[in-house]
Design brief:
6-stranded antiparallel beta sheet, 7-stranded mixed beta sheet
Length: 298
């Protein structure tokens, strides 16, 4: 963790004791820890470990998963710094794109028929988790047309794990970024005219502007804003409002009728337990602290 220091309060040693960061003893320790808690750590449902790619391809994918939006995910691990981790992951990603039916069969067996029928092949992802990355690694991912996340890990003491996103680059989502809010705006135009177009554009602008690592994933029923994992989901406009779902605990928010609502346990499109209802540009301004809190949590 670049520059990060972690301390534990300790009344017997001047009040503070530094918890020293360390790398795992072996790569498999990192892999096992992430696979056991993949949904919590990465927002990815775990599918398979050391997945064989057959005698012709001759490889083994460290981890396979499916993210919150239905995008296929390959996770590759390295104990320390390894210049080959990105190319290795891209090699497996190319194999995955040529074996879609096999992946969907795996999803069907592990998660179910519905998930298998909704796999989002427009934005497959590669997540590389390593002890560190070089500036050349960061530059390299920006030259590729794939969705790649570089994540640095550190272990602290015997029971703490730190993850830091070093770089996050969108691939299939870049076209959506270039057209900005066009598709949401077009949907809004048929519902409530220019005011809804303006509102949808303002929400899109704010969410994309929260940080450099924000990617966007288009689904039929919602648009996800992602920072390694989803932090906001914007639904197509209703007659007079937009609904945004955030990864904020509703218990930590003073809920306001007609503006914020606890939807934990209720079915809805996208992910997140806090629903924010936006009707005017003033509502977008009111919601910005909630947007930032959800972004930070991701």
């Amino acid at each position: 963790m670049s520059g990060l220091k972690l301390f534990r309060t300790d009344a017997t040693n001047s009040g503070m004791t530094e918890v020293m960061p360390r790398l795992a003893e072996i790569e498999a320790d990192v892999q096992g820890l992430v696979e056991a808690h993949m949904e919590t750590l990465l927002g990815v449902r775990f599918l398979a470990s050391e997945y064989g790619t057959g005698p012709v391809h001759g490889g083994r994918i460290d981890s396979l998963g499916l993210d919150e939006n239905g995008s296929p995910v390959i996770v590759e691990y390295k104990r320390g710094t390894d210049a080959g981790v990105i190319n290795q992951g891209l090699f497996y990603l190319a194999w995955l794109m040529d074996h879609r039916a096999e992946f969907e069969h795996l999803v069907r067996d592990r998660i179910g028929v519905t998930a298998a029928s909704q796999v989002l092949w427009s934005s497959p992802r590669l997540i590389c988790i390593a002890g560190d990355f070089t500036r050349y690694d960061v530059h390299a991912v920006r030259e590729h047309r794939r969705s790649i996340d570089l994540v640095r890990y550190r272990l602290f003491g015997s029971d703490l794990l730190g993850l830091e996103t070093v770089a996050s680059v969108s691939g299939g989502m870049q076209a959506a970024r270039r057209v900005r809010h066009q598709d949401v705006a077009q949907a809004a135009a048929g519902v409530q005219g220019a005011s809804m177009v303006e509102l949808a554009g303002a929400v899109d602008e704010v969410l994309l502007g929260l940080g450099d690592g924000v990617n966007r994933v288009e689904r039929k029923t919602y648009r996800a804003y992602q920072r390694l994992r989803n932090f906001a989901c914007l639904c197509p406009p209703q007659r007079s409002k937009l609904l945004v779902y955030l990864k904020v605990d509703p218990k930590d928010v003073d809920l306001v009728a007609g503006f914020t609502r606890d939807v934990s346990g209720l079915g809805h499109h996208g992910t997140g337990d806090l629903e924010v209802q936006l009707r005017t540009l003033r509502d977008v301004e009111r919601a910005q602290d909630l947007f930032r809190a959800s972004y930070a949590a991701a």
